[in-house]
Backbone:
């Protein structure tokens, strides 16, 4: 029962770490208490995208006339939509099972708890405890939906994301608290399915981490699609004693009561760091996160942590990159610390949002003199042909040295376009180099080149 590396948790942090560890020649085991693939594959990234695909197909069907087509008796089957999403998640989890076998990684099903002396106790479903030893123990136990004290989740009327993607019946009316990526993705899905959706957001903007131009454009599109949005507002309490819910919302104008069948709380995450032995080992935790150095070592030698349990963006690709960096460092490779300033963030509502680097406001606050270019998809041939003219690409450069400070996109398919900006920034590309990189025509990606051209007064199609 001795391993070189034991990973606790098999999300995109844990399973990727295990695969890279095995590639590097370590005898590796991964411990999982629920389903292989973690939140991302089972209850996060993937099943939500499956739901959103159904919403997109349905939205296209509702507008077939726009494409010169005819379709009659268009309808949806909510149960089947949910079933498809759950099926996609299960298929992905099976895929991880295959990858574990392929990479000769032992999968130990049970709940892991770290102990002093580089040991892990695993309690299986029957309550049997087995002790394992490892030279390196990597904690990747992830996170769950955060519960606000005034919005306790009963899982039926006040729900978190797990229930939101597996409801037995479609609610007629829904309140979504929080307009971050998770909140707006569900708001969009349910609105497309025909639910009457109201978003309540505490901040003055929707998708508050995004550039203000993107937030404004997205707000317009939410409203156009029929979603009601209450900004600068907070749900103070929720009464679930009746048939549905009645939420008391504090707004700038006073108190308002909102009635709905269901309230979805999408106000962030709470890390899974309780009862995993951190105190017994003496691992330092601060503000709900395990404290680690640039290579994910905790304060106790031999114990590491990666993914949602450590500070940094709580995203699947970040968790995976952290795990790879962690084991490459253990293996003695000359690996670089992750640049958290160059992590792309994506929101898969309609329109999609994708961004990397500084917003205009943050760049100004940092004291840069800016060159900004914007190119609307309304001027893109591909967007016109596809009937997706909404949105734009906005690029921000430092006027003095030409550093690409930020890139912000809103529109159809932009989540598949942002990697160009991430790579460009990683390679310290200047605006002129992007301009001289020939982009294929007709593609949505031409808008990146044109936005850069706009920043340097060389735009062609505006
Ligand atoms: C609705 C939703 C949509 C999302 N969409 C995206 C997206 O589009 N793109 C993106 O990048 N990110 C997205 N995320 C975030 C992403 O899912 C997380 O950042 C990512 O899953 C974190 O990976 P992780 O490996 O740290 O943890 P997790 O994926 O949370 O995995 C942790 C695993 O550890 C297991 N575990 C916990 N405790 C123990 C224990 N004691 N013993 C054994 N096993 C244990 C859990 O069962 C779980 O399987 C989304 C999240 C949600 C909720």
Residues:
């Amino acid at each position: 029962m001795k391993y070189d590396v034991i990973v606790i948790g098999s999300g995109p942090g844990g399973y990727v770490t295990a695969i890279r560890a095995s590639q590097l020649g370590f005898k590796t085991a991964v411990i999982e208490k629920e389903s292989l693939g973690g939140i991302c594959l089972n209850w996060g990234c993937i099943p939500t995208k499956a739901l959103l695909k159904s919403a997109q197909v349905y939205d296209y069907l509702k507008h077939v006339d726009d494409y010169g087509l005819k379709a009659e008796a268009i309808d949806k089957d909510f149960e089947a939509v949910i079933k498809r999403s759950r099926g996609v998640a299960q298929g992905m989890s099976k895929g991880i099972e295959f990858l574990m076998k392929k990479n000769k990684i032992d999968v130990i099903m049970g709940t892991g708890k770290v102990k002093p002396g580089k040991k892990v106790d695993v309690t299986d479903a029957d309550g049997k405890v087995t002790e394992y030893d490892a030279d390196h123990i990597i904690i990747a136990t992830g996170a769950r939906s955060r519960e606000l004290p005034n919005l306790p989740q009963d899982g039926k009327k006040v729900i978190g994301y797990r229930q939101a993607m597996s409801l037995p019946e479609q609610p007629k009316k829904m309140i979504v608290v929080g307009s971050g990526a998770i909140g707006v993705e569900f708001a969009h899905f349910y609105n497309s399915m025909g639910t009457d959706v109201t978003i309540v957001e505490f901040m003055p903007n929707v998708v508050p981490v995004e550039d203000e131009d993107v937030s404004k454009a997205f707000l317009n599109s939410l409203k156009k699609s029929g979603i009601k949005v209450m900004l600068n507002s907070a749900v103070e309490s929720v009464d679930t004693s009746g048939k549905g819910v009645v939420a008391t919302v504090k707004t700038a104008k006073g108190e308002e009561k909102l009635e709905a069948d269901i309230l979805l709380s999408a106000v962030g995450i709470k890390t899974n760091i309780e009862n995993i032995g951190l105190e017994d080992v003496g691992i330092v935790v601060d503000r709900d996160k395990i404290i680690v150095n640039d290579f994910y070592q905790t304060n106790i030698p031999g114990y590491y942590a990666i993914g949602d349990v450590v500070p940094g963006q709580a995203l699947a690709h970040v968790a995976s990159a952290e795990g790879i960096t962690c084991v490459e460092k253990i293996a003695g490779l000359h690996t670089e610390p992750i640049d958290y300033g160059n992590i792309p963030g994506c929101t898969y509502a309609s329109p999609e949002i994708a961004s990397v680097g500084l917003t205009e406001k943050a760049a100004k606050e940092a004291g840069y003199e800016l060159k900004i270019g914007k190119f609307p998809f309304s001027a893109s041939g591909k967007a016109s042909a596809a009937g997706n003219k909404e949105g734009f690409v906005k690029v921000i450069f430092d006027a003095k040295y030409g550093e690409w400070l930020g890139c912000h996109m809103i529109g159809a398919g932009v989540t598949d376009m942002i990697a160009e900006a991430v790579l460009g920034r990683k390679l310290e590309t200047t605006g002129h180099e992007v301009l001289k990189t020939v982009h294929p025509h007709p593609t949505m990606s031409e808008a990146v080149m044109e936005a850069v051209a706009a920043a340097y007064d060389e735009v062609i199609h505006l």
